[in-house]
DNA sequence: AATGTAAACGGACTGCGGTCCGTTTCTTAT
DNA sequence: ATAAGAAACGGACCGCAGTCCGTTTACATT
């Protein structure tokens, strides 16, 4: 399964291949930090994790945390990495109707349903990752979904600016909105999925 | 023209009527602060305004700034108040096709076009207001657009969960996405408006 | 005018994300 | 083994949003 790298190895540069021999102490600290971060999220929720408390828990300096993950958002992205990769694998290579083999509209519908459930499980982390990320639309994972949606729209025969249309559909599934609907207004996941189905069906058929 | 109060008089309580006799010094400081805030935004942009610099410029203490506006977001909302009220007035009471009198689909299309232009003019403030506002969907203005879109959808004969559908359309027009499209990807306002037209047309006709 | 009191004031203080830079540790070459 | 250089480390430090609470000010009542 192909993996899109979510955390650049060097904070500054563009996404390099992740392997390239990391120094022993760096690797150890990364493991320490990820473990400590998961513990803290478990105990206090994503919002309850502070970079200082994480450093303390892992027994490293605060500078090390930022050297490793770049920012709070980067850390959250790292914590999400596996879940994100799983989701990507499912819609790109998994079984239909989510994966290839089903008609595009069916894949679109399945994509939304899958994403909604994903958000309900990992949304708090995703929200924390998005917050204070000026570039949430340019994160590799976001670009990938966008392209995927755009491709499905094209396959479904949508010729009217599929790039923007994919963007419109994409924001519809963002954690912020989904969690707000569910938590504040008590909307059920099924109702959200049904609404998504209506939306993409109309977008595809309306052409 | 009816005005929806955007800034609660008392930070804690729900939106009370704005009149209710404000103490003379409070009123003076509010005017001072708003004027200073506009100057600072003019000079350094919304992101360049800090609450401390605002307090200094207005010649008041920092506590006063927070007492008056509650938070940075509240201040930005206050700065947007007039622009927001103008927009509200236009889509609720203005001339068609934006205001009442035109068929619902035409009003929906006009709503998007108007909002896009609005965001291009005031978007930076709106973005600053949204950022770090955990409740951006519950801000009075947002609730109002949501209801408006929902109503238009119903009038247009959309029976499939108009509330959620209105929410989906609504996030599509958020400053974050619009500004990102324009500034990072060079999308023209016209192209955005056209895409919105396609979207709402399909949503309405697809039923 | 004097007085009581509720409201507003102001700035020191806290907590957080993020940066900086002198110090330490790993790795490689000799 | 050792020395040199690169990379990682760590915690003091900064700027900012937001809070707290002792002090001041405006208004109403007499």
What would your notes on this structure say?
Two copies of one chain form a homodimer. By secondary structure, chain A is mainly α. Chain A has two domains: 24-70, Arc Repressor Mutant, subunit A, CATH 1.10.10; 73-205. Helix content of chain A is 68%, strand content 0%. Chain A is built from nine helices and no strands. In chain A, helix 2 crosses helix 3 and helix 6 (140-155) crosses helix 7. The longest helix of chain A is centred in the middle third of the chain and has 27 residues, at 104-130. The first copy, chain A, starts with 23 loop residues before the first helix and ends with a helix. In chain A, 37% of the residues are buried. Chain A binds chain B through residues 131-132, 137-138, 160-161, 164-165, 167-168, 171-172, 174, 177, 180-181, 184, 187, 191-192, 194-196, 198-199, 201-203, 205-207, and chain B through 131-132, 137-138, 160-161, 164-165, 167-168, 171-172, 174, 177, 180-181, 184, 187, 191-192, 194-196, 198-199, 201-203, 205-207. Chain A binds a DNA duplex (30 and 30 nucleotides) through helix 1, helix 2 and helix 3.
């Amino acid at each position: 399964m192909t993996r899109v790298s979510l955390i650049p190895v060097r904070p500054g540069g563009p996404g390099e291949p992740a392997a390239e021999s990391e120094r022993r102490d760096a690797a150890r600290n990364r493991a320490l930090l990820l473990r400590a971060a998961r513990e803290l999220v478990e105990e206090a929720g994503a919002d309850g994790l502070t970079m200082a408390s994480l450093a303390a828990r892992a027994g490293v300096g605060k500078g090390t945390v930022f050297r490793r993950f770049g920012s709070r958002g980067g850390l959250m992205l790292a914590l999400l990495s596996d879940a994100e990769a799983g989701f990507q694998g499912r819609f790109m290579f998994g079984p239909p109707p989510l994966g290839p083999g089903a008609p595009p509209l069916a894949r679109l519908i399945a994509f939304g349903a899958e994403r909604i459930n994903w958000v309900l499980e990992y949304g708090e982390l995703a929200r924390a990752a998005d917050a204070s990320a000026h570039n949430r639309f340019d994160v590799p994972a976001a670009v990938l979904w966008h392209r995927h949606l755009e491709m499905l729209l094209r396959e479904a025969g949508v010729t009217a600016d599929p790039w923007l249309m994919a963007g419109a559909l994409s924001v519809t599934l963002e954690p912020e909105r989904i969690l707000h609907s569910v938590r504040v207004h008590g909307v059920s996941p099924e109702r959200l999925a049904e609404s998504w189905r209506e939306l993409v069906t109309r977008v595809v058929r309306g052409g």
